[in-house]
Write a structure and sequence with these properties.
Helices cover 69% and strands 10% of the residues. The chain is built from four helices and four strands, in the order H-H-E-E-E-E-H-H. The strands form two sheets. A two-stranded antiparallel ribbon has the order 1-4. Strands 2-3 form a two-stranded antiparallel sheet.
Length: 156
C-alpha cells in the first residue's frame, strides 16, 4: 500500500508544471553554461593573457610528479606513468566562468523582479481605486473641542 502511495505522489509531482519548467531551465542553463565557458576560454582569457604579457592560464600548473616511463631489463616499455599536477590555471578559468554565470543570473533575476513589480503596481492601484479610502482620524485636540462644543449646545 505504501508503495502505491509513493508512486501516486511521484506521479502528482511529475505532472505538475513546476517539474517541466525546472527541466527546461536545466537544459537552457546547460547550454548557457557552455556558451559562457566558450566565451571565457576562447575570448576573455586569451585577452587577459595578452594584456598580462602573453600568459596562457590554461597551462598554469604545479607538477607534483613528472611523467615517466618504466622499462624492463631489455629496455622495453612496461608502463607509462602519467604526470601528476595541480592545474590551477584551469581553476582560475573555471572561477571566471562561475563569476560571469552568477552575474548573468543576478541580472536576469533583477529584471524578472522589476517586471513583476511593474505588473503588480497597476493591480494594486485598481484594488485601491475600488475601495473607498477611510477618512483620516481627527487629531485629539480637534476631537476635544468638538466634544466641548456639543456639550455647550446640549446645555442651552
Amino acid at each position: 500500500m505504501a508503495k502505491c502511495r509513493f508512486i501516486q505522489e511521484f506521479k502528482d509531482f511529475a505532472v505538475k508544471g513546476n517539474v517541466v519548467d525546472m527541466a527546461v531551465g536545466v537544459v537552457i542553463g546547460g547550454a548557457f553554461g557552455k556558451i559562457v565557458s566558450s566565451l571565457v576560454a576562447d575570448i576573455i582569457m586569451p585577452l587577459v593573457g595578452w594584456l598580462c604579457g602573453g600568459i596562457d592560464f590554461a597551462t598554469w600548473r604545479w607538477v607534483i610528479r613528472p611523467a615517466r616511463t618504466i622499462t624492463n631489463e631489455a629496455g622495453e616499455v612496461v608502463k607509462e606513468v602519467a604526470e601528476a599536477s595541480l592545474n590551477y590555471g584551469n581553476f582560475i578559468q573555471t572561477f571566471v566562468d562561475f563569476l560571469i554565470i552568477a552575474f548573468s543570473i543576478f541580472l536576469v533575476i533583477k529584471l524578472i523582479n522589476r517586471v513583476k513589480n511593474k505588473m503588480a503596481a497597476p493591480a494594486e492601484e485598481s484594488v485601491a481605486a475600488q475601495e473607498p479610502e477611510a477618512p483620516a482620524p481627527k487629531p485629539e485636540d480637534v476631537q476635544l473641542l468638538e466634544e466641548i462644543r456639543d456639550l455647550l449646545k446640549n446645555r442651552q
